[in-house]
Amino acid sequence: MPAQTDLGANHLAVRLGLARWQLRLGREHGLLPEPDLDGERWSAGLVEECAHRSGQVVTRFGEEPPIGAIRAATRLARRTGLDVERCDVEVLVARDHLEVVSSFRGHPLYLLRDLDALDPEKVRDVVAARKGPLFDSVEAGGAVIILGWPRKTFDRIAGERTLAKDRFGRYALADIRALAADEELAQEVREEKRRRALAKARRAETDIEDVVRGWLLRCTAYVDRAAEEPPDPALLGRAIRGLRGTRAETAKYEQETG
């Protein structure tokens, strides 16, 4: 087989040991050159030139892909114990505290390392400016984001602990932070989340098994001339792939909860 003289984006990323998102950001920020051949391809010479730059890309952007504003707000909320919203992230950008590293379908993206490096006081100032006198309280939805709990779990625990609400139905931020700091409670919630995830995976496994059984029945009907058309082979292939993945997920949760 002749040696490849030029590479497309997928093969270039593999050659450089980069993920596709790292390759894209490297190009956007000028750390990697644009393709010099038609069809979005890099010539052999340019590929060699790129080889020593992959380390610069990893150093600049890290190993984890950037995230959008909603997930960025959630990450900041859990780190700071404040009910950070998407608009707060945008204000942090406007104040030059946070960089928009790229975009996806017109939506800005942020590096996890930049979010984690943000001064909590800068985040606090932005949230306080938005909330004003409501700064020390939070709605249930905001509490769920801060805690990283399912809503049903929060409602149950809030009821069990008779958390006080103000006249607007909001909880004291201090109470939510106290829940977050309770290690025994955090472990209980983690176990509950794993049990729910296991139950969900088992339901998905059963649903896919039913699809496979239905396909086999239709196949048998066709073989026995009880049906005029055979079932779609592609359906079985998709179901088996899904079943393998779901069973692996079920096994993982069973091990974690065992």
Automatic annotation (TrEMBL):
Organism domain of life: Bacteria
Record-given protein name: Uncharacterized protein
Lineage, broadest ranks: Bacteria, Bacillati, Actinomycetota, Actinomycetes, Streptosporangiales
